[in-house]
């Protein structure tokens, strides 16, 4: 078969010989090998379970609860007649200028109830 | 799942469906391994490269455009994976063409002829520039069009036509002494 750069048709004879020479045996075994090699990759993007979802919500939920508790303490402190009340620990923590740890804040608020 | 389109399987695989990914692998195993073999020569190394390509494609599924064909997108990744392996290795494994052997002419039985033809064809292919190898395999074996090959290779369409033309001319010259055997093998 003659050929030119303008030939748009595949050469079936050459194509068949090349396919025969390049095709490796046992494609199913190769596919299984690739699927096995891919197993660790699925771990990078797991489908989240309900427990994963809950854990995702837990931290912001705790922060929100702490913020509400702190607001409640401050509001109670600013009420008329509460001026004689000694500054409690959460307010003292805020006065330090550093961000208090959430756990410590919750314990303090709980103990002040 | 066998009736689904590649784009649908890719979307499922991207969402974590392993069976969909497995089906994509089975569908495209042949072209991926052949292109990798054309680039690297060595069958085992080609399988490693094809596997690298499939895994890279799995990681990059979010960048696959479902409006475009999956095959050329995957082949492009496999070509890159095979080229990376070729750059990393120190010694080229392909054997040069033995002129005396090619001129001797085949006389053994058909199985031996087929083996010899395959060996000579692989050796001749290994002598071609890499881009010509990829172009002729995609055009004459995988049935890709010039435009698709140009996109895979990131070259102009005219360059692909030229690559296919030169690759064919070289391979036909090398295989000329085997032509009678080639015609019998089918």
Describe the model.
The complex is a heterodimer of chains A (113) and B (186). Chain A is mainly alpha-helical. Chain A has two domains: 12-42, no CATH class; 50-112. Chain A is 65% helix and 0% strand. Chain A contains five helices and no strands. Chain A has helices at residues 12-22, 27-42, 50-77, 89-95, 102-112. In chain A, helix 3 packs across helix 5 (102-112). The longest helix of chain A has 28 residues, at 50-77. Chain A is rod-shaped, with a radius of gyration of 35 Å. Chain A starts with 11 loop residues before the first helix and ends with a helix. The relative contact order of chain A is 0.07. The model of chain A has no long low-confidence stretch (mean pLDDT 75). Chain B has 186 residues and is an all-alpha fold. Chain B has two domains: 6-88, Rna Polymerase Sigma Factor, Chain: A (Orthogonal Bundle), CATH 1.10.1740.10; 99-184, Orthogonal Bundle (Arc Repressor Mutant, subunit A), CATH 1.10.10.10. Chain B contains ten helices and no strands. Chain B has helices at residues 6-14, 18-40, 43-59, 70-88, 99-104, 110-127, 130-141, 146-153, 157-175, 179-184. Chain B is globular. The two termini of chain B are 33 Å apart. Classes of the chains: A mainly alpha (113), B mainly alpha (186). The A-B interface holds A 3-8, 10-11, 13-24, 27-28, 30-31, 33-35, 37-38, 41-42, 45-47 and B 16, 18, 21-22, 25-26, 29-30, 33-34, 37-38, 43, 46-47, 50-51, 54-55, 58-59, 114, 117-118, 121-122, 125, 136-137, 139-141, 143, 146, 161-162, 164-165, 168-169, 171-172, 175, 182-183, 185-186.
Tags for this model:
heterodimer, A: 113 residues, mainly alpha, 2 domains, 0% strand, B: 186 residues, Rna Polymerase Sigma Factor, Chain: A, Arc Repressor Mutant, subunit A
């Amino acid at each position: 078969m003659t050929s030119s750069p303008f030939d748009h048709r595949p050469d079936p004879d050459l194509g068949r010989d090349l396919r025969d020479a390049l095709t490796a045996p046992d494609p199913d075994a190769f596919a299984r090998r690739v699927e096995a090699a891919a197993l660790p990759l699925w771990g990078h993007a797991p489908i989240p379970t309900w427990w994963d979802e809950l854990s995702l919500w837990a931290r912001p939920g705790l922060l929100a609860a702490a913020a509400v508790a702190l607001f409640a303490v401050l509001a109670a402190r600013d009420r008329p007649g509460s001026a004689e009340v000694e500054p409690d620990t959460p307010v003292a923590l805020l006065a330090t200028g550093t961000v208090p740890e959430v756990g410590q804040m919750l314990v303090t608020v709980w103990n002040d109830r | 799942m066998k009736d689904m389109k590649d784009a649908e399987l890719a979307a499922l695989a991207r969402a974590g469906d392993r069976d969909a990914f497995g089906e994509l692998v089975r569908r495209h195993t042949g072209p991926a391994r052949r292109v990798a073999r054309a680039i690297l020569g060595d069958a085992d190394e080609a399988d490693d490269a094809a596997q690298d390509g499939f895994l890279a494609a799995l990681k990059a599924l979010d960048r696959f455009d479902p409006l475009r064909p999956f095959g050329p997108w995957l082949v492009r990744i496999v070509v890159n994976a095979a080229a990376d392996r070729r750059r990393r290795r120190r010694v080229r494994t392909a054997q040069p063409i033995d002129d005396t052997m090619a001129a001797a002419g085949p006389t053994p039985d058909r199985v031996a002829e087929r083996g010899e033809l395959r060996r000579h064809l692989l050796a001749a292919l290994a002598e071609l520039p890499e881009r010509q190898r990829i172009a002729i395999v995609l055009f004459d074996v995988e049935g890709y069009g010039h435009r698709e090959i140009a996109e895979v290779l990131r070259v102009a369409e005219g360059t692909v036509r030229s690559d296919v033309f030169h690759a064919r001319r070289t391979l036909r010259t090398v295989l000329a002494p085997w032509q009678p055997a080639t015609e019998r093998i089918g």
